[in-house]
């Protein structure tokens, strides 16, 4: 039981590794009480709670969860809570600075969540009016978002009148997009309702210019023959167990057993597999153990990729399906740009077009683009959640210049790579 003066929060509701940060962050008793009593909370606040805590919040908010509770992720529960009553999200006036400036790599996820919260609440008209009056950057962002709305209306629902637009935050393992945009209004004499999948990308002015665009879980679905999870269990997990117990033995703590093989294979493809919880906690607390897990993770991926075969057909099918019907909200230099994928060939991998450069598969597509498919662990190297990270492989400056010359496009050799890519995008040249 965590004791905050006259308020007691049950530890089972709070992630153990975050408990100290939670206590440090909310030194004001009223702040803690507000969060636990569901008066106010941000996405960041909700991350302090584990699945039991989030489910408790959902139950007290009467938010029904239809999915199997073992399958639903913490992120999906957080999305339910933030979408349930957006006016309860506590966004500070200074958060606009974090929206505009680029974040460091270690803060990418956290800052991007905050950006999505800001977009959601500007469009849903939940931002206090005083923010727009006190800081012109808020007003600039609102105007830029309104321009984006105008662009998508022109393309997708130009004849609809008196439309009302609402955003819902999505994301999570089951969704390959960030928002659902719900539009209702008059179409002729009839009422009309439409829904659009919206993907938000920061610091890019084209779909092709966005680097990472997909992160499918359970990568074994895309291997022919040898499977990575089984390979890792049979060849590396014993080493992880042995190292964990060496570390625990030094501190006179209870030793850990090796998870059952079937249970491991069935549950490892999520953020917090129960069979590896103790190992994950040890990795967060002990640098020697986490370093060892990193080393074994890299070694296992390098060795596995020498013997595996990528199923380019099933991966291409997944990519085409996951990008289908998506509309893009691209943010670049203070402007939101509307775009929509017009060429599925950039997701279709050529047969025989795969080169292995561990931990990456370099895949050539039908449109002569290159994709970088990285095999990695998302939530603790060698411990939890193996997945792919898929991104466009952007050509180096020399190759971009060659493309510009071949297409008789004027440019300056002093231009930055981003400017060269922008020129190619404007001229419709695929790279």
Characterise the protein shown here:
The structure is a single chain. This protein is an alpha+beta fold. It has three domains: 1-90, no CATH class; 93-202, no CATH class; 211-323 and 343-394, no CATH class. The protein is 41% helix and 20% strand. The protein is built from 17 helices and 14 strands. The chain has helices at residues 19-25, 29-36, 43-46, 51-60, 74-84, 95-100, 108-123, 129-134, 136-156, 228-235, 237-250, 261-267, 277-285, 287-304, 312-323, 397-406, 417-426; strands at residues 2-4, 7-9, 161-169, 179-187, 190-202, 212-214, 223-224, 309-310, 326-332, 335-340, 349-357, 360-365, 370-377, 386-392. α11 (237-250) packs antiparallel against α14, α13 packs across α14 and α16 packs parallel to α17. The longest helix has 21 residues, at 136-156. The protein is globular and about 70 Å long. The relative contact order is 0.09. The model is unreliable at 1-33 and 84-88 (pLDDT under 50).
């Amino acid at each position: 039981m965590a004791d905050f003066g006259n308020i007691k929060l049950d530890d089972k509701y709070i992630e153990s590794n975050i408990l100290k940060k939670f206590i440090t962050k909310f030194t004001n008793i009223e702040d803690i009480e507000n969060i636990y009593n569901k008066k106010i909370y941000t996405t960041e606040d909700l991350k302090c709670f584990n699945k039991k805590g989030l489910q408790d919040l959902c139950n007290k908010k009467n938010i029904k969860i239809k999915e199997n509770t073992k399958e639903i992720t913490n992120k999906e529960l957080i999305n339910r809570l933030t979408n349930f009553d957006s006016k309860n999200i506590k966004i500070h006036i200074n958060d606009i600075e974090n929206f505009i400036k680029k974040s460091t790599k270690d803060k990418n996820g956290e800052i991007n969540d905050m950006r999505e919260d800001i977009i959601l609440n500007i469009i849903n008209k939940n931002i206090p009016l005083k923010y727009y009056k006190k800081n012109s950057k808020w007003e600039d962002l609102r105007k830029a978002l309104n321009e984006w709305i105008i662009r998508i209306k022109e393309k997708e629902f130009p004849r609809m009148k008196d439309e009302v637009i609402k955003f819902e935050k999505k994301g999570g393992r089951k969704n390959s997009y960030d928002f659902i945009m719900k539009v209702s209004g008059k179409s002729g004499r009839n009422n009309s309702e439409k829904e659009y999948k919206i993907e938000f990308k920061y610091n890019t002015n084209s779909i092709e210019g966005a680097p990472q665009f997909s992160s499918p879980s359970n990568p074994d679905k895309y291997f022919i023959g040898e499977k990575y999870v089984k390979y890792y269990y049979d060849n590396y997990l014993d080493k992880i167990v042995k190292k964990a117990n060496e570390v625990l033995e030094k501190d006179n703590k209870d030793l850990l057993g090796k998870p059952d093989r079937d249970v491991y294979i069935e549950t490892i493809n999520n953020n917090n597999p129960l069979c590896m919880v103790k190992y994950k906690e040890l990795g967060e607390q002990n640098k020697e153990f986490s370093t060892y897990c990193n080393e074994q993770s890299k070694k296992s991926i390098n060795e596995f990729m020498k013997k595996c075969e990528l199923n380019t057909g099933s991966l291409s099918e997944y990519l085409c399906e996951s990008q289908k019907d998506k509309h893009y909200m691209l943010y670049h230099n203070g402007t939101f740009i509307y775009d929509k994928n017009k060429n599925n060939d950039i997701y279709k991998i050529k047969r025989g077009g795969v080169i292995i450069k561990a931990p990456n598969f370099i895949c050539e597509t039908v449109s002569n683009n290159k994709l970088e498919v990285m095999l990695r662990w998302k939530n603790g190297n060698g411990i939890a959640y193996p997945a792919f990270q898929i991104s466009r492989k952007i050509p180096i400056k020399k190759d971009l210049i060659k493309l510009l010359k071949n297409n008789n496009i004027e440019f300056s050799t002093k231009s930055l790579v981003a400017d060269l890519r922008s020129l190619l995008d404007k001229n419709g040249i695929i790279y």
